[in-house]
Every structure is written in structure tokens, then in C-alpha cells.
Design goal:
This protein has helices at 9-24, 38-55, 60-69. With 70 residues, the protein is mostly helical. The protein has one domain.
Length: 70
């Protein structure tokens, strides 16, 4: 049997090794994170807006609306 170049077996093996413990214990593996998560962006946004509230540039009411939205 001959492998086709670029068939993805190395990536599949790497993914299996990363998720093997969860798979064998009957759990759902955690998704791989290749970038920033929405939660991280929202927290960064709220932190910057809280600093604006603290300095008086933004009203607490507006910050409250931003917090509800995110």
C-alpha cells in the first residue's frame, strides 16, 4: 500500500494523540483553539471600557449597557 502525499494522516495522528485521554474515558474532547475566543474579545472590550468609566470618559450607565450586550 502506498500513501498519497498530503493525505493528512500525520495531522490526524497528532489530533488523536491530543484527544486520546478524553476519547478513552468517554468524554467529549475539548475543541482545539487556533485563535482568540469571543469571550476573550468581550473581556478585553469591557476592561478597556471600565478604565474609561474610572477616568470619567464613559458613564456607568453606558458601561452597564455594554456589559449586558457582551
Amino acid at each position: 500500500m502506498e500513501r498519497i502525499p498530503g493525505d493528512g494522516w500525520e495531522e490526524a495522528l497528532s489530533l488523536y494523540k491530543a484527544q486520546a485521554e478524553a476519547l478513552h474515558s468517554g468524554k467529549t474532547p475539548r475543541p482545539a483553539s487556533d485563535g482568540i475566543m469571543v469571550m476573550d474579545v468581550c473581556n478585553f472590550f469591557l476592561t478597556s471600557k471600565q478604565m474609561m468609566v474610572d477616568s470619567g470618559e464613559l458613564s456607568p450607565r453606558t458601561f452597564s449597557e455594554y456589559r449586558k450586550t457582551t
